[in-house]
Amino acid sequence: MSSLQAIRYRRGELLVLDQLRLPHEHHYDPVSTSEEAFDCIRSMRVRGAPAIAIVAALAHAVELHSGAHLSSAATTPDGTVAYIDSRLDYLYESRPTAVDLGNAITNLKNVVRDVDVQGQEAGAASSKIVEAYIAAAEEIFRKDTDTNKSIGAHGAAWLLANAPAKSAEGKVAVLTHCNTGSLATSGHGTALGIIRSLHQAGQLAHAFCTETRPYNQGSRLTAFELVFEKIPSTLITDSMAGALFNTRRERDHIAAVIVGADRVVRNGDTANKIGTYALSVLARHHGVKFIVAAPTTSIDLRTETGAGIKIEERKPEELTQISGAVVGKDGKVDTSRTERVAIADQTIGVWNPAFDVTPAELIDAVVTEKGVVTKGADGKFDFRDIMPERWADVVGQ
Ligand SMILES: CSC[C@@H](O)[C@@H](O)C(=O)COP(=O)(O)O
Predict the structure, then answer these.
(1) Which of 2, 57, 70, 145 has the most CB atoms lying inside 10 A of its own CB?
(2) How buried is residue 202: exposed, middle or buried, by Cβ count under 10 Å (0-12/13-18/19+)?
């Protein structure tokens, strides 16, 4: 395998890497309908805010390419737009917290409404709308990697200029949480993209990654990506972050916690994987920078504060059971055999929120593809300058 790819696409065919089988197996599932995409997203075979949006958008593109709209009697322009809307509305329900999916859906709905079909025969007009949808979905996929590379460059430059600690060679160490790399995006990654960019520039001393309980995106996915990219790295459990900062911050030149985002709202409050908030409190206490890496597609200007974010709650089994490859008596991992085991009393009550909200107050910088946003003299984030059109559209002048 030459590079990690969560999503493989060519017109008419979408293949999605089953992340539940990682790191032991690399299996791609064909996804060719909205129902298959919904299931793939809900069951977290694909996850990560940008990747969820891309899979939903492309799955419907494949569905349209196969002519699914024709069998749904959507052969008039209005019927075609209504059909596309209904499939996108259905996909929107797959996971609630990440805003990228909602933003992609709004964008795609606008695209199909903007197609000029004046004076055209119904069939030709319908095809033109379908073609515009497919091209727009492909563009979301194509643009994502460029966006992430830009986030990587902006974030690395900002951190090197603002790091509270650096090695004698000017390098920094960082801690990241969850998975925000190639597996959560179309490539390069957001928070992991900054780490990748620092490493490529020879300015990364070390990357620490948390296990990210309960779903273990850190140990299953980020650790896998770091090893794959040969980035010097260490895995810790979520509960070790405080001790890491307390005992090794100076020795290891730990300059920042860098995380991704599922939704950054207008005042900068940020929903991200459960455990992010605790890391932001620890970072502030220890004088470590706290950086959110997020494409502008993860920014939700409609929601004013974190109190308005819907937090997904997931099933108890994610805490009380775990699956993994079998380790033989000789200590060797048998990747052909995976097992699910119980790790808690199966009747205990469970609270399993998938995300938490970090208040803007504890965030030092939001790194987007358009640049780095920090707080103004009033202590507030202002996204007006990096997304003026969306701001005017949503918030007004
Ligand atoms: C670039 S991915 C950013 C976030 O989506 C990521 O940090 C995260 O919280 C993912 O959660 P997940 O539940 O695995 O979809």
Answers:
(1) 57
(2) exposed
- The confidence band for 1, taking pLDDT boundaries of 50, 70 and 90, is very low
Q: What is the pLDDT at residue 165?
A: 86
Between the CA of 168 and the centroid of ligand 1 the distance, in Å, is 34
Maximum CA pair distance of the chain? 73
Q: Are residues 293 and 156 in the same domain?
A: yes
Can you give the residue range of the structural domain that contains 214?
147-313+350-394
Of the candidates 148, 207, 210, 152, the one whose C-alpha atom is nearest the C-alpha of residue 178 is 210
User: Which pair of structure tokens corresponds to residue 357?
Assistant: 């909200």
pLDDT tens, residue by residue, 247-297: 999 999 999 999 999 999 999 999 999 999 999 999 999 999 999 999 999
| Whole-structure pTM value | 0.96
Q: What is the pLDDT of residues 19-30, one digit of tens each?
A: 999 998 899 999
Domain boundary among 99, 123, 144: 144
Distance from the alpha carbon of residue 362 to the mean position of ligand 1, in angstroms: 19
251 is a domain residue: yes
Spacing, Cα 12 to ligand 1 middle (Å): 27
262 annotated active-site: yes
- Of 54, 178, 224, 315, best ligand 1 pocket probe by most atoms within 8 Å of the beta carbon: 178
Cβ of residue 126 lying under 6 Å from some atom of ligand 1: no
